[in-house]
Amino acid sequence: MRNINGGIPAGLSPDAPRLVTKRPELTMLSRTADSLYWVSRYVERAEYLARILDATMRLTNLPSAYGGAGTEWQSAVSTAGCEETFAKVYGEANERNVCDFLTFNPDNASSIRNCFALARSNARAVRTALTSEMWDALNGAWLELQRFEKKRMDREELARFLDWVKNVSLVFDGSAYRTMLRDDGYWFSRLGVYVERADNTARILDVKYHVLLPANEQVGGSLDYFQWTTILREVSALTAYHWVYREAVKPLLIADLLILNRRMPRSLAACYENISRFLDHLGDAYGRQGPAQRQARKTLANLNNTRIDDIFEHGLHEFISDFITENNRLGGTIIEQYLQ
Amino acid sequence: MVAFDEMTGSGAELRPAYDALDRWLKEAPPEMLALRRSQAELFFRRIGITFAVYGDEESTERLIPFDIIPRVLTKPEWTKLEAGLRQRVTALNMFLADVYGPKECLKAGIIPPDLVYRNACYQLEMVDFKVPHGIYCHIAGIDIVRVDADTFYVLEDNARTPSGVSYMMENREVMLRLFPELFAMHRVAPVDNYPDQLLATLRSVAPRSAPSDPTICLLTPGQFNSAFYEHSFLADKLGIELVEGSDLLVKDDVVYMRTTQGPKRVDVIYRRIDDDFIDPLVFRGDSVLGVPGLIGAYKAGNVTLANAVGTGVADDKAVYSYMPEIVKFFTGEEPILKNVPTFRCREPEANAYVLDNLDKLVVKEVNGSGGYGMLVGPHANKAQIETFRRKLKASPEGFIAQPTLALSTCPTFVASGVAPRHVDLRPYVLSGANGISCVPGGLTRVALKEGSLVVNSSQGGGTKDTWVLDA
Amino acid sequence: MRIRISHSISYDYAEPARHITQILRLTPRDHDGQHVMSWRIEPNIDGRMRSSQDAHGNIVHSFYADGPISALSIKIDGLIETVDLAGVVRGGIERVPSEVYRRDTLLTTPDEALRGFALEATSQADTPLSRMHALMDALHTEIACVDASGRIGIGAAAAFAAREGIAQDIAHVFMTCARQLGMPARYVSGYVAQSDTLPHANGAHAWAEVYFDDYGWIGFDPANGLCPIDTHVRVAAGLDFADAAPVRGARKGGDGENLAVLVSARETDSRLVNQ
To answer: What are the chain A neighbours of B136 within 8 Å (beta carbons)?
Structure first.
């Protein structure tokens, strides 16, 4: 009987393969990239939901003479993009129902709770691709969330909760920024942030575009003023607005800020500048450009070459609808090109 | 039954290897030990189990208790153990190559053929298939128990997907951090080269057609598997991708992983999925964990699976009882490590003895696992014994029996202070085209309940660091 | 008897499949009772087909195709010459010892009812061969065989409890009982030529084979209540259906699968064939 290599110490065998010392090429499992991308998207979405609720609460706090048509909560559901599910679960869009639906409702696939749950489960599946700081931020948030879930949510508690959600997103985003290696993993995670953010900003505009239209603009002390500032609050840009334009709040300028102004981090233009940049990094590192790069560049060029007057002239609503479709298509292309 | 104690032997005399440790323990205030233990637990939560589960609603996993007092083996003890392990694993590999190939050991009557042929772990797909480099069991975990100063028994061979090596490494890591003074007093052989050795082993068994820098990955059933933590730990330490079945794709008998740069060819798969679930086109069709076509690629010689498919036939409980004969037949040497004396109930004389002594013996079902279908005579009531008597009479070939063993004890820090508790040892043996290697020591498991012989983590077992002293 | 077989297996997918892998055990081999005169397997889409043999000696084709695939059809055409050997299977390839076929599998796990039935049905018989015939006869009357195409097998114990099953189930019940009686038994998939005398001769069929120390392998068709004759074309054998299945497949994408199977196995006039 032949003795199977018995007795030869490891490494001394003459035909042991020589270890090659070279830097491994940059590549990662599609599933890992996919999870990193979605972790970021879900965290970003949770923050967005918190902002919508926060801004809506403020708006409905106003005496009715300043408020809108009493449809603020319905509008919050539309902005969150889950009207259908909401209609199935609840009848009326009032404060209690909408807050419950968008915060803790387990049946709403994109409630804040489920966003965190999905972010964490994606993170857990690719735990080693995250830095421990990022993991701690998410895992800690998940534990804390369960504490909140047990509490009775009055307005005060809800406000605290919403602040906390925004804070989790800041901490997670900050840990990613400060601790991740600048390689494909980081780029995919950033892509998730900006594709989601572009979608969110566009959705706000899609639901609220009518209050920005010139026909609705009344001279002096408009009731719509509070609707406009609500939009700015939803993207945390009220202060930024004044710094940028040094003018009273005007619909045209709000649209300009949210769509075309690259200084504004949540504008569509800023999102696409980032999307395009990170896709270029990927294209360079992998030595191959694809449909995602081409699509992103086209959208960016479009945003760079358009003036806000043109958009209003051709129809704000059409512009935003087209943008949402294009942005979704890009999401699909990124998945197809890299994440399957 | 007085068990041999690792520190004091059979009497009250201190064994030399424990000299320094004993002095240190005597000086250490219990509060300090308690503090270090809680620090150790914190450390495990942070580096180890943190991501496995805690705070998870669907989780059933816990931290496995860690005991801060190490188990110490001397160099001569380890040298003998290691020689025995190498011999045993060599024989396991030769046995596997034989039963899937020429079947000399069956022809020679070393082991009854039906134990192999009727064994569900004997994978027909592997018959007459030549595995890359002739190695089947690349990673083995051999469970060892000690009964006196010179006698180590093999309790069980784990030739499929043995786990626990991450605990071996992290136990050492935490000890180094918490007790640097102890390491200054002892010359402890390191274990942290295990990942390098494992990687070298995996690289050495790449198919001959693979590039000199083969692509290796670790295949896990996923994050809900109880050993997922270990899978990601090892993938991380080895610097290889941790893949799930859905990350792999077989095309034209070649395995690829799906990456952001498109499909990338895979040469070696360290798989931690059981045979039954590894390829739904060949084994269980309802498995969603596996990779369709993987066995096709394997048999086409385009990928190495570690361990090979079908190694389970070598660590089966019924085959176990023949291991001494198997070792002798294949290596031509007397076995260095003994088996626990085992009665094969398929032999009428043995069965008669077993039936007469059910209250003293441990009876195990040959195909049972995880403690099911097991009778621990001294701890069983009348009804349980009678149930087994009926089973043994109806199908004796389904059972083996062993005497209850006095596993050695080792000082352990428990609620009442430092007290002896029963331990076993699982060393890990790697076999590649580059030879056999085995890091000194292994994983010591300890039964934390007083008098308990069950070291299993699911039943109150913990772990200890295992030291092999260099001098 | 000369039998012409044409068999088509067609899939279509609501969502196109990105990738398809199939393991096909659809090719018969020669043995004393059958001679394969011609045999073709043709998928209607491009892909790679590799031929190999499995542990039981079956001819296995691995088929890989890349998408998008919205429909796939595999056509089998063949001509077989058979002789009636009263079920004896000789002159074929045997790659593993008969002992292997005493294993229980997922689909052939015995329960108390099956154990009891096996003993009771064979209590009067005194040789292994007569025991197996007694078992087959008892099963033939005990369990109803249904010819529902598209129905999926449910395993021996469940089928026996229901006293009803497709040919596959009945073969499993028979094998399970045979193994309980200490006999090596295996599953056979194949075709049965249309016949006026056989109740279940609708093309694709399944039966069992039992190993006797004195005679070797002998077929038993408990659904029809007889040993296979020259109407039976043997294609693949294994520990159970899963082990000998005509097609095992996996795909990426391709949601909304729709399967259609057409089989015909008919006696054919030799003069027509030779033209």
So the answer is: none
- Put simply, the chain B residues between 255 and 284 with a CB less than 8 A from any chain A CB are 257-261, 264
Contacts of B143 (CB under 8 A, 6+ apart): B154, B155, B156, B157, B158, B424, B425, B426
- Window 432-471 of B: residues touching A by CB (8 A cutoff) are 432-437
Q: How far apart are CA B111 and CA A16, in angstroms?
A: 35
Interchain CB distance below 8 Å, C64 and B284:
no
pLDDT score, position B370: 46
CATH code of the domain containing C67: 2.60.40.2250
Average pLDDT on B448-461 reads 80
**Chains near C, with 3+ CB pairs < 8 A?**
B
Model ipTM value? 0.90
Give the domain CATH number at C158. Answer: 3.10.620.30
Q: Is the pLDDT of residue B67 over 90?
A: yes
| A112 inside domain | yes
Residue B117 Cα, gap to closest chain C Cα (Å): 5
**Nearest-neighbour CA in chain B from C189: distance (Å):** 17
- Are A257 and A220 found together in one domain? yes
Would you call A4 an interface residue with chain B, using a CB distance cutoff of 8 Å?
A: yes
Structural domain span for residue A157: 38-180
Span B424-435, pLDDT tens digits: 999 999 999 999
Same domain membership, residue C105 and residue C169:
yes
In this predicted model, what pLDDT tens digit does every residue of A264-289 receive, in sequence order?
999 999 999 999 999 999 999 998 89
Q: Note down the domain range covering C46.
A: 2-80+246-268
- Residue C206's nearest CA partner among C181, C240, C177 is C240
How many domains does one find in chain C?
2
Tell me the pLDDT tens digit for each residue of B357-410: 999 999 988 865 545 578 888 888 899 899 999 989 888 888 999 998 889 999
Q: What is the pTM of this model?
A: 0.86
* Domain boundary residue, one of A145, A180, A215: A180
Q: Is C150 left (phi over 0), alpha (psi -120 to 50) or beta?
A: left
Has domain B343-403 been given CATH number 3.30.1490.270? yes
Nearest to B117 among C62, C100, C242 (CB): C100
Token pair recorded at residue A240:
């930024």
CB contact under 8 A, C99 and B114: yes
In chain A, the number of structural domains is 2
Q: Same structural domain for residues A151 and A192?
A: no
